[in-house]
Amino acid sequence: MDQRQDPDSRDNLPLGDLTIRAVRPSDSEEIAALANLPGFRWGTLRLPYQTPEDTRKWIEGRAASDVRLVAVQNGKVVGNGGLNRLQGRRSHAAVLGMGVHDDYRGRGIGSRLLRELLTLADDWLDLKRIELTVFTDNAPAIALYKRNGFGLEGTHKAFAYREGAFVDAHAMARMKP
């Protein structure tokens, strides 16, 4: 368990036995179940009915430059996130994606997962730029990203089709401090 303390009081909630670790192929069943939760899926580009088999292929097919983590609490996968490093003249940048189990939101798990990803980006991968897209109606995620140094760069109109309607998304990025 990560013993580091954070000055943001929202992140100091009791998290029990929370571990952040690399994704394993054996996590495919739990990650697929996580991705199929309505709240988790609502904030992503994933389609309903993700299979454990497709999830396992996604895990095993990662590029060597990608980072994929899970947040595990009391033996259960309660969040996942990753960095997909870009190539060539954009190798200084990565795209971030993450989500937390519907029943575990508001407990600081997303903050811990994001901080771990940013630590990897800054201290191990020497990434200068981390970018992401977030639906404009996802206020908790936008607030989390802003608290962690991400700024709004623009808004994509009709970015994705979700639950029968087109939705907008913000482009946000964080430059290495």
Automatic annotation (TrEMBL):
The lineage of its organism: Bacteria, Pseudomonadati, Pseudomonadota, Alphaproteobacteria, Hyphomicrobiales. Residues 18-173 form the N-acetyltransferase domain. Signal peptide: none annotated. It comes from the Bacteria. This is GNAT family N-acetyltransferase. GO terms for molecular function: acyltransferase activity, transferring groups other than amino-acyl groups. It comes from Microvirga alba. CDD domains: NAT_SF.
